[in-house]
Amino acid sequence: MKPNESAAINGFAKQNRDPSSVTSNGSYQNANSIGKEQKKKNKHSRILEADCTNLREKLVDRLKGSRFRYINEQLYKIPGKEAKKLFQEDPASFDAYHEGYRQQVEQWPMNPLNRMIKCILKLPKDTIVADFGCGDAKLAASVPHKVYSLDLMSNNNSVIACDMANTPLESNFVNVVIFCLSLMGTNLADFFLEANRVLKVGGTMKIAEVSSRFDNVNVFVSNVQRCGFKLENKDLKHSLFYFFNFKKERTVLKGSTNTKQFSLKPCLYKKR
């Protein structure tokens, strides 16, 4: 090959080298080096994208948690009738509350509702149950018994929307009433008088509540018994929850002078 041909070929080769492969000092990188750099950039981009996604999810969760805590606090400060009105005016808040509630349940070492379900499963199949404050009606979906699921709003066809102090159930109709973490509001006497109305004499009222809500268990029991019930047994051994079984001893009409309104302490969930 002639010298001038060699120079031309070398010149052509230099002109066709990828300018992007030139480093800061003017030397050329090989293809492998460029490929490694690109992989690093792609990996870094994926990490940044994942971090942004995680941050967005955390912010959304915090906003949901804040809304849940706000609604939760309001429900402890007002009677059931006003709570029903609150959810009617803002139906989305009902879903937000129960979504936040489900997140809280996942963090508990036990779910009291599962204990209630086990108890109902041991009862005769013809037992009629009223679940006061049923949420998403998990109890009804978990047992073969007839369950009337009651809550302030209905998020599915199996839930009857009503004030817990004024349900559409007939008097002396059900065998068991359930209050599972649903004793919210300032008018608990109204709830228990309604439970007394719908229960048959000798029927059972089962209660599960957060233990920190009780200042004095004996005072609570005394208040419930004024509504026509007799305490059969209680379980205070669990660190987070208390469980009570009451029997309807007699019928007590609403408006009775022996019953006064009472409430439990609010259950305030911590920020996480």
UniProtKB/TrEMBL annotation:
GO term, biological process aspect, one: rRNA processing
Keyword Transcription regulation (UniProt): yes
Chief location bin: nucleus
Region (Disordered): 1-45
Keyword hit for Transcription regulation: yes
Location(s) in or outside the cell: Nucleus, Nucleolus
EC id: 2.1.1.-
Family matches, as InterPro entries: RRP8, RRP8_N, SAM-dependent_MTases_sf
GO molecular function, one term: methyltransferase activity
Bias kind Polar residues: ranges: 18-35
A GO CC term assigned to this protein in UniProt: chromatin silencing complex
Keywords for the protein's UniProt record, in alphabetical order: Chromatin regulator, Methyltransferase, Nucleus, Repressor, rRNA processing, S-adenosyl-L-methionine, Transcription, Transcription regulation, Transferase
Family of this protein: Belongs to the methyltransferase superfamily. RRP8 family.
Protein task: Probable methyltransferase required to silence rDNA.
UniProt protein name: Ribosomal RNA-processing protein 8
Organism per entry: Anopheles maculatus
Species lineage: Eukaryota, Metazoa, Ecdysozoa, Arthropoda, Hexapoda
